[in-house]
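Notes from hallway chat w/ T.B., transcribed later so I don't forget. T.B. wanted the structure written out for a chain they're using in a teaching module, and asked if we could keep both sequence and structure tokens in one place. Agreed to drop them here.
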Amino acid sequence: PLKESNTYEYFWWNACPHCLIVAKFLDKWDKKDTIKLIKYEVWYEKTNAKIMEDRFNKCDPKPEAQMSVPFMITPDGKCLMGNEPIIELFKSL
């Protein structure tokens, strides 16, 4: 888990259509200033891709699980993948 209780790590790629859906939601989300969102672009930034791989492996993925974006780690260490689970979590805050 991250040190700050309101810090989320978000992994994305600019050509990912699901990431675009999350980005559009976040642009309009009225609570975006209540959290700290660290964004990692993973296609061009290979260091960020390695960070994502490390985080993904700590999520104890099922053997058939495929690492993909959008991917997010919550402050309590919960792993979310896909635009719908990520947006639903933000809506619940």
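Follow-up for T.B.: The mean pLDDT is 92. Might be a good example for the class.
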